[in-house]
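Hi R.,

Here's the chain you asked about this morning:
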Amino acid sequence: MQVQDQAEIAHLLAELRVEHRDLDVAIEHLASSLSRDELQLTRMKKRKLLLKDHIARLESRLIPDLDA
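And here is the predicted structure, written out as tokens:
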């Protein structure tokens, strides 16, 4: 992996983490709302899980392969 690729991945990770945090706040707000939309809440939770998986995959790409 080249340095440029690592920088791009790090930048993308930062953006995804921000989106993940924003979704977490939005989910909390919607869940505590009296007139909450269960379908919207479910979609937001699913998106948050997808983001978490994407973040984990990108983080694993940043870990160098070491021969044991």
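One quick note: The chain has a mean pLDDT of 90.

Cheers,
M.
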